[in-house]
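wait is this the right file?? whatever heres the structure
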């Protein structure tokens, strides 16, 4: 083919794309959507008005996920394309077109698909970024001064990233063609798998890894442990899913083949025998569908429930409307704090309600039987950690409106999530008799969903509170200058306000400004003041959850589509032979339906099982984000699963019809 006109490569490339439109069009559409989604996220993350807080962090995290997804997914879908094209390329090779000319033709094809995908993706990205910007503003749920802008840097980064991905996929395709001989290319997509062996070790590995992942999900009690071990469980379940789909599915199909009453039926014989020979490649696709489906369900259900439970989250995080924490409880500081609260609430015309003021030694400690270790060393689990509050009896009697008395070696104990249940307690080097274990306390209700268990200890006087905290901070590795500035005993004021929202907010902002500047070091917290930052975080998480959920959903649909198309071409000759030996079209259709149903819904069923087992550990993780409303999360999860299952069934109906068109 010497002296070939250069324009012929362009003509051949366009003809090839047109002739292979069933596989090329979905690939190009997916590439366009991926380019669009990357540009939109990059542009939003670079928007100056987003700031440097939690929202920008969330957007940058999502951007990283999209980059990894784009590389893996475009390579994965490209592998379907090149598999289907091998026979056609083999024909070109047999007719005299050298591999160098085929490489040029493939390069032109790649340039066309890459150019079209990047150009259209960027155009739609710029158009739809305004819509996504408005959606984000709506989700954030409050007035924020964010301005829409087209980012030239994002455009450049998008072009560079996807040009590199398409270049790598082209390189992969050229290597595939270069290493294959014409006969292999002619057999291409039709070369069947040898009957795979039943891999006992891989099956055992799959059972063990999924068992470990499930055990972590079920056995984890502490929210902090859930955060630490969740990703270990995720990796175990992913590895186990791939192993069981690859080895376990083959073992299952061989078991079905041995069951003569099941196997020797027309609809079962063809589907089971065919799937055994292709299960090696089929299993990876099914496992991918299962993992992607699980990711969609987890991301959408958790982020929707976080956003829907915003009121519950704020109530959990801020039990009272306004809270002052003075880290050095001096008489002057306590008196000035009280004066500022009185002056500013009176000035704003609001009334103080449910005011609770007390001194407390606050520290992290380790609860080991009847001993509370104040040093921060030792090999203890997260479930042994407690947040210890040591309160003088005088303050306890004041806020509880009681007249309790204690001996010098006696204490009251109250735990928020469990029962202490012992007669004595040793805190550091001091041992106390438990005069009484309290069933309730004004400061905090019983609550098993705390990230870290809180223990309240009421001691006879302030001097003992100081001695315990001195010992705790003396054993600490914290910076001495920091602890000296902070002091060891805190003064905490908690209160609600009655009045219009505008007046209450005005009073709280004034109190915060004055207390933090005049009574140092102090921190003021308020539900009303913090609501913006919470909507920034949880609204951002919802936006990213839905955004990435749609992206993974797109990947799931395309993998399902390519799997069905690929199997349709693989099965075409086999079903034609079956029809020639007497199998009618009705039996063919019934056999197809049997095969598709047997395999198609398995990933969805396994994904739902994964979600059901992970539900408990996910509730623990959500507790670290202050969502303790389990019924709400359960409702969101069930709705997400039902909607996804309906969508999955629709995809099944469409792809099964395409499959039948090919084989028939």
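ok assuming it is, sequence goes like this
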């Amino acid at each position: 083919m010497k002296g070939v006109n250069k324009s012929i490569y362009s003509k051949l490339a366009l003809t090839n794309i047109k002739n292979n439109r069933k596989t090329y069009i979905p690939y190009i559409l997916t590439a366009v959507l991926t380019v669009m989604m990357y540009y939109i996220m990059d542009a939003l993350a670079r928007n100056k008005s987003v700031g440097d807080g939690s929202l920008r962090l969330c957007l940058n995290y999502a951007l990283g996920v999209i980059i990894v997804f784009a590389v893996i997914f475009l390579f994965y879908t490209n592998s379907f394309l090149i598999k289907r094209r091998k026979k056609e390329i083999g024909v070109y090779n047999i007719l005299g077109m050298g591999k160098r000319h085929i490489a040029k033709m493939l390069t032109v094809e790649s340039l066309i698909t890459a150019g079209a995908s990047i150009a259209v993706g960027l155009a739609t990205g710029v158009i739809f970024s305004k819509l996504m910007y408005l959606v984000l503003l709506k989700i954030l749920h409050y007035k924020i001064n964010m301005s829409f802008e087209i980012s030239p840097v994002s455009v450049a980064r998008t072009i560079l990233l996807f040009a590199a991905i398409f270049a790598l996929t082209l390189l992969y395709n050229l290597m595939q063609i270069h290493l294959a001989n014409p006969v292999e290319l002619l057999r291409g997509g039709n070369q069947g798998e040898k009957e795979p062996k039943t891999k006992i070790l891989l099956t055992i590995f799959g059972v063990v890894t999924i068992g470990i992942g499930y055990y972590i999900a079920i056995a984890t009690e502490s929210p902090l442990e859930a955060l630490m071990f969740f990703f270990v469980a995720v990796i175990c379940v992913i590895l186990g899913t791939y192993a069981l789909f690859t080895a376990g599915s083959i073992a299952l199909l061989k078991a079905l083949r041995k069951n003569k009453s099941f196997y020797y039926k027309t609809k079962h014989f063809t589907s089971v025998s065919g799937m055994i020979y292709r299960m090696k490649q089929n299993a990876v696709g099914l496992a991918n569908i299962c993992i992607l489906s699980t990711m969609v369900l987890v991301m959408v259900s958790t982020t929707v429930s976080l956003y829907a439970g915003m009121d519950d989250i704020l109530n959990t995080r801020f039990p009272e409307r306004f809270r002052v924490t003075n880290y050095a409880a001096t008489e002057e500081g306590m008196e000035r704090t009280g004066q500022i609260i009185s002056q500013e609430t009176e000035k704003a015309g609001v009334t103080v309600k449910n005011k609770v003021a007390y001194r407390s030694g606050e520290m992290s400690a380790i609860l080991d039987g009847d001993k509370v270790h104040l040093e921060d060393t030792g090999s203890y689990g997260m479930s042994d950690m407690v947040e210890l509050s040591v309160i003088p009896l005088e303050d306890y009697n004041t806020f509880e409106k009681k007249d309790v008395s204690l001996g010098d070696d006696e204490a009251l104990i109250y735990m928020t999530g469990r029962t202490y249940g012992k007669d004595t307690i040793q805190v550091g080097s001091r041992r106390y008799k438990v005069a009484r274990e309290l069933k309730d306390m004004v400061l905090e209700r019983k609550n098993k969903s705390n990230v870290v268990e809180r223990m309240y200890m009421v001691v006879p006087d302030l001097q003992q509170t100081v001695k315990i905290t001195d010992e705790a901070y003396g054993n600490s590795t914290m910076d001495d200058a920091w602890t000296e500035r902070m002091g060891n005993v805190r003064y905490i004021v908690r209160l609600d306000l009655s009045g219009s929202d505008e007046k209450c907010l005005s009073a709280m902002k004034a109190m915060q400004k004055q207390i933090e500047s005049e009574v140092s070091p102090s921190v003021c917290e308020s539900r009303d003041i913090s609501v913006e930052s919470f909507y920034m975080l949880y609204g951002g998480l919802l936006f990213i959850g839905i955004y990435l959920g749609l992206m993974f959903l797109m990947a799931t649909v395309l993998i399902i589509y390519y799997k069905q198309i690929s199997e349709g071409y693989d099965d075409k000759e086999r079903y034609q032979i079956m029809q020639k030996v007497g199998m009618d079209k009705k039996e063919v259709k019934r056999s197809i339906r049997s095969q598709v149903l047997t395999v198609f819904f398995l990933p969805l069923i396994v994904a739902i099982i994964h979600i059901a087992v992970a539900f408990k550990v996910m509730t623990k993780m959500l507790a670290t984000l202050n969502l303790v409303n389990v019924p709400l999360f359960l409702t969101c999860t069930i709705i997400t699963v039902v909607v996804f299952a309906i969508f999955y069934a629709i995809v099944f109906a469409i792809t099964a019809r395409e499959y039948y068109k090919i084989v028939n």
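Residues 351-498 form one domain. so i think its the right one actually
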